[in-house]
Amino acid sequence: MLQTTIETIVFKDDVLQMIDQRKIPLSFEHFECRDYRQVEYAIKEMVVRGAPAIGDAAGYGVYLAALEFESQDLESFKKNLLEACDFLEASRPTAVNLKWALVRMRKIIEAGGRNTEIVRRIKEEADSILKEDIETSLMISKNGAEVVPQGATILTHCNTGALAVSGYGTALGVIRQAHYDGKDIFVYADETRPRLQGGRLTAWELMQEKIPAKLIADSVAAILIRDGEIDLIIVGADRIAANGDTANKIGTFMLSALAKVYEVPFYIAAPISTIDVETETGEDIEIEERCAEEVTHIEGVCFAPEGIEVYNPAFDVTPWQNITGIITEKGILRPPYLEAIERVVKE
Ligand code: MRU
After folding, report:
1. Less CB within 10 Å around the terminal CB: N or C of the chain?
2. How many whole angstroms from 118 Cα to the centroid of ligand 1?
3. Is 13 labeled as catalytic in the residue annotation?
4. Which residue pairs from 81-89 have beta carbons closer than 8 angstroms and sit at least 24 positions apart in sequence?
5. Which of 120, 139, 158 finishes a domain?
6. Each residue of 257-277: pLDDT tens digit?
């Protein structure tokens, strides 16, 4: 049985409480949001991060906005709420779960009813998104375990565990499941420059779960793959286009290319909510560019020469041809993905 005691997002007494992921593992602190502006800040500044988790947070952000505007006349109430949705959506552009959660919220606002009714339905929807996220990640974990052979050495990138999903995780959920199934697995976790989600968060989760693992600098992955040390690679996703092209943390594409050259299975693990059929191919995915300090500084200390220009895309796109399978809550999709995705989103 899978277990995690990590509660990434908790909503209680009209306060959204989140584990502050900027601080782990040096300290374990919570960040509280009492209004939707604070939720937007938390998403933008990566207090909360990971595609599904930011969708969960946004849902409660809309609820906090609904509480704030509830006493207004119906027209202003709805107008302000829809603007709050736009504001939250602009916080991060690549991970589609944010947009997906807000589409669900907008439908409720636009469906009408009295203010109190809309507020109630928004709260129910935010709770459902969180609950579905937890259940979905459990299904992904179980479905994915079938591709993990006994004694496998797995390489993963970025953080895809309980911190990113408010459940068991996607790629890291599959790893957890394989570990609890007694498969005697070993994990190499990329540190994941520049924000070090692998070094700080995945390494922390692996240690919490006592899963045998080593942390590596991103550039080590190539020689491990070349030397036959990696049996499979599993990563998460921030947006999957209709043809299967997948945006994930910067560095993922490089791993997929190596996997192809050395014939190592390369899997994406993600909920169906990460598939965006309105995005035709990876070329249509907006890639978030983040600030120079993420590259020039570590823990607030600058190591680069002053004035150096920086290019810092947060994500890259892995072409569908490099992906062996996409592990979802509805099973494992296999290429060609256009048909497989069309089928699964219709179910
Ligand atoms: O910038 P981040 O930390 O939000 O990026 C997270 C990732 O790229 C994850 O791999 C992805 O969201 C999948 S999380 C289940």
Report:
1. N
2. 31
3. no
4. 81/109, 81/118, 82/106, 82/109, 82/110, 84/36, 85/109, 87/36, 87/37, 87/40, 88/36, 88/39, 88/40, 88/43, 88/58, 88/61, 88/62, 89/58
5. 139
6. 999 999 999 999 999 999 999
